[in-house]
Amino acid sequence: MSDVEILVGQRATVRHRLDDGSATDVVGRVVEAGPNGVTVERRDGSEVVVAADRVVALKVVPPRPARSRRALDVGVDELVRVTSRGWPAPDVERLGDWELRAAGSFTGRANSVAVVGEPGLPPAEAVAQVLAFYAARGLPPQAQVVVGSDWERRFLDAGWLPRAGYRGGAVVQVADLVDAPEADPRVDVVGAASDRWLSRYGRVDDAAAARAVLEGPRTVGFAELEDGGVPAAAVGRVVVTGEWAGVAAVETLPDHRRRGLADAVVRTCLAWAHERGATRVYLQTMPDNTGALALYAPHGFVTHHEYRYLEPSQEAHSRSSGGHSAGA
Q: What SS3 class is residue 195?
């Protein structure tokens, strides 16, 4: 093993040259290192790849100090990007701050444009590019907008409508992961989604597309709990990107509910994430899912923001495709 490869898993500063000849530093956990360069994961989960011929110096640094900023105080735009990294579409294009995502038919989160920040183009041109992106992939265009945001208003004013057949928005909740709960020994956490796990989760028409999203992050675990001889009676998914963890896909077979299995899965997922350096955690669920909200509340989860999906009306689609959008 080379001296550089020994750095994997450690927190380090990597000084490297930029195109103009100046030098800059990136600080974070080294997740890959070798003769071609190093990849550093920053605390927000984003990754910086530094080619070997650009590296000036490498230095191991102490673990980052405990941060005083609570999960609830993190900005909406930042958290939207964090959650997107935890549920990554395999096909992504950047449009300024916007992220155009496609993953076949697997979930709205992986098949919508995340509308935060600025697109770097006049709004009409940006929307036209969104329509072209999804048309090229044979997918319906949809925008994930934060409820109450300026962009939600602008899209609505331009004739976009709540997505047909969708029962409303989604709520994003967060908690600080200061002390991890005790993991339940009955819960196994592995690094890939088994066919059985996918079956328990449901919502999967294309297993390959689902796995591309679910198994996409670098640090991800799939939890299964056997109950009464029934394998995977309860399941869940946990992902760690930087200092953030995300818990999702917690499902229990109907005949095994009200036995505390879902809570055992959640506690184990939180413990697993804490062991891997997460200090904050998020989840996404429906605001009318009272069972899920009650499950997560004892672990300190509170609502951060809500989002929903919009799609263009026929008139808005025609107008935007022609480059004459009025507002969005």
A: helix
